[in-house]
Amino acid sequence: MPNSPSAPSSAGASNAVSRGTVLIADDDPEILTLLSIRLSKRGYTVLEAADGLQTLQVARRSHPDLVLLDVMMPGKNGWEVARELRGDQALSDIGIVMLTAIGEKVNEMTSPLYGADDYIDKPFNFEELERKIAAVIEHRRKERGSDNPRRR
């Protein structure tokens, strides 16, 4: 894995302004690495977490624009993490895209129940995933009343 969990990724990064910060939460190291490299090359600042508890720790510490959240993870599953993020006033503005292989119908029905903004099924199409990430980040920024990234 090129980055330690929760470390910002610099793979393919340039001096350009980040399109936003994405926390990738998945217990599969190959998916973490693949998504981290891809999103970094697309201009996102990337954080990583390998389980649900770590996801919450990184979210509290770094307050990303979006969490790309696998459902089936150790510690706390993605639904539990999503519910905690939505229940915490300080974190409730973070975008959530569920990423899972549990099945399209299950994902479609459950993701909104736990507060996810959107979902995508594994295996996923990178272009579709990137469109959803960009759309959720843009929507969340507009809800906060600013088209600009959060000042940290």
CATH topology: Rossmann fold
CATH architecture annotation: 3-Layer(aba) Sandwich
Q: Count the domains.
A: 1
Count of helical stretches: 5
Helix content: 40-55%
Radius of gyration: 14 Å
Distance between the termini: 27 Å
What is the H-and-E element order? Answer: EHEHEHEHEH
Please identify which CATH superfamily we are dealing with: Response regulator
Summing up helix and strand content along with how strands pair, one would put the structural category as: alpha/beta
CATH class, named Alpha Beta
The total strand number stands at: 5
Rounded mean pLDDT score:
83
Low-confidence stretches: 1-7, 9-15
Taking strands numbered 1, 2, ... along the chain, how are they ordered across the largest sheet?
A: 2-1-3-4-5
Strand content: 15-25%
Rough outline: globular
Q: What's the main sheet like?
A: 5 strands, parallel
